[in-house]
Write a structure and sequence with these properties.
Helices cover 20% and strands 40% of the residues. With 220 residues, it is an alpha+beta fold. It has 3 domains: 78 residues, Elongation Factor Tu (Ef-tu), domain 3 (Beta Barrel); 83 residues, Elongation Factor Tu (Ef-tu), domain 3 (Beta Barrel), CATH 2.40.30.20; 28 residues. The strands form 2 sheets. It has a 6-stranded antiparallel beta barrel. A hairpin with a 2-residue loop joins strand 10 and strand 11. It is globular, with a radius of gyration of 22 Å.
Length: 220
Amino acid sequence: MFTGLIEGKGRVREINRAQGEIRLTILPLFEMIDCRLGESISVNGVCLTVSSLKQGAFTADVSGETLSRSTLGRLKQDEVVNLERALRIMDRLGGHLVSGHVDGIGKILKKEQVGGSTRLEIGLEPAVARYTIEKGSIAVDGISLTINRCHEKGFEVNIIPQTAGETNILGKKVGDLVNIETDLIGKYVEKFLQNVKNTKRRRESSAIDMDLLNRHGFGE
């Protein structure tokens, strides 16, 4: 579990591709002490597991399933990525709960300077856009952001100077793709309500009443 508050940036040192999967080697561009084998690190919002450590860099394997749902397969050598290590129980939760399990890919539709901030409009597939709400939280390439406005095809966010300086987000151009993870609480609520509705429907369909008895020859 992550917070969406990026610890720092990293540079892709090496990409090895084989059998529909890739192995990434990333060099953190900040002091990332106590990194251990098997720990989880968010790379552009995607939760990956450290498989090896060497000369200050870490390596992680990316499965075909993850490649199909994220932008990691489009990474290039020397590209800069956002990095965040997993949340510790005693840490402050400054952003929002982020699982690192990407819901889909968004596309930057508009980028403009507004005062001291940068406003981005990001397009989404309707299946993902349905989970966005105004003033709700969303993770864009692992960055916890607040939605200014949303519509059925996407949303708008503001990038403040602090976020711009700590992440790779302003290096993105109109037309670039980003990883999107919507607020997981909304998805759980939807699932719960759907289960309630299905249970109610089954109970109603199995209820014994006079209409059911008449249809089966047990009426007067």
